């Protein structure tokens, strides 16, 4: 072979080796770094970002609605020149809260105390009676009509009777708060326990489970979502019962404060009492919702997942 032919062949082989090495390195880079224009990855990123924006919107939406309502309220009062004794502006109500904050806090603490005591009693007795009613068909048909008849009685008509029995003061407010919040807790707990399938009860009995164990290990966990749903209704109704009794026969509390303020035509102070009551009610509702999420998250997880997946 001529020398010049050998000199030409060697560089050509070296070039092929270098090209193959470069291709292998490029393949490794492509494996380690997925292409930026992959439509699947882009779609997943968009869904994650949409779900994040939806969660942020859900958190700030109540504050936006409240702010918009206050602005509309303020503008309507000034545009239509509504008298203060008919509908005070939010700024006037805020000034009244600052001016009368000492009696407001004092009376609000009294209302909160009576509400929490009545609500606690309603929880204890409502849970107990709900378990009994939901566990026994005979008790259900025996007591359920009585519960419905008792709940249909207007509680404002019961307050004068409570005043005769217990006198003027704190006790009628506690009892009224209890009476209003007792019914939804009892009915929802009984409904939750009654949703246990008869086939499941039969299987557990065949396996030797005692009826009390069935209620404790199956019925009560099954009724927890129902219980917390009634809890959020009952806590707001409890404030209604306390304030109702305070307006009729109270010596202290937000209801008593509102009656005294209305007799003096202090309408901004009346609205201040309403706002303080609403704040306490929303706070208790939020606490109940947090406890519900930590206790019965298994029951609402699918709903939360569906809401997050549909964020776009």
Structure description:
The protein is an all-alpha fold and 312 residues long. The protein folds into two domains: 40-82; 87-309, MetI-like fold, CATH 1.10.3720.10. Helices cover 86% and strands 0% of the residues. It has twelve helices and no strands. Helix 3 packs across helix 11, helix 4 runs antiparallel to helix 9 and helix 9 (211-249) packs parallel to helix 10. It starts with a helix and ends with a helix.
The CATH homologous superfamily of the largest domain is called: MetI-like
Structural class estimated from helices and strands: mainly alpha
| Domain tally | 2
Q: What's the pLDDT, averaged over the residues?
A: 79
Q: How many extended strands? A: 0
Q: Which radius of gyration do the C-alpha atoms yield?
A: 33 Å
Inertia-based shape: flat
């Amino acid at each position: 072979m001529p020398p010049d032919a050998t000199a030409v062949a060697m560089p050509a082989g070296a070039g092929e080796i270098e090209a193959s090495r470069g291709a292998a390195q490029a393949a490794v880079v492509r494996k380690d770094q997925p292409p930026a224009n992959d439509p699947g990855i882009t779609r997943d990123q968009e869904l994650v970002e949409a779900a994040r924006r939806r969660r942020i919107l859900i958190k700030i939406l109540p504050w936006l609605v409240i702010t918009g309502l206050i602005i509309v309220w303020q503008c309507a009062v000034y545009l239509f020149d509504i008298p203060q004794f008919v509908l005070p502006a939010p700024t006037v109500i805020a000034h009244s809260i600052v001016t009368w904050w000492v009696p407001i806090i004092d009376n609000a603490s009294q209302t909160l105390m009576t509400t929490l005591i009545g609500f606690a009693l309603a929880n204890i007795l409502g849970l107990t009676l709900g378990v009994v009613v939901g566990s026994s068909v005979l008790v259900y048909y025996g007591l359920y009509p009585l519960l419905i008849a008792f709940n249909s009685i207007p509680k404002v008509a019961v307050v004068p009777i409570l005043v005769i029995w217990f006198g003027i003061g704190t006790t009628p407010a506690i009892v009224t708060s209890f009476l209003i919040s007792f019914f939804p807790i009892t009915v929802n707990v009984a409904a939750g326990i009654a949703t246990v399938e008869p086939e499941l009860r039969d299987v557990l009995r065949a396996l030797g489970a005692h009826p009390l164990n069935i209620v404790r290990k199956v019925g009560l966990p099954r009724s927890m979502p129902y219980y917390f749903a009634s809890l959020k209704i009952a806590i707001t109704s409890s404030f209604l019962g306390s304030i109702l009794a305070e307006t009729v026969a109270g010596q202290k509390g937000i209801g008593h404060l509102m009656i005294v303020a209305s007799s003096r035509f202090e309408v901004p102070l009346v609205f201040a009492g309403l706002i303080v009551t609403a704040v306490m009610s929303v706070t208790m509702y939020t606490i109940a919702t947090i406890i519900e999420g930590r206790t019965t998250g298994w029951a609402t997880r699918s709903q939360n997942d569906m809401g997050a997946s549909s964020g776009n």
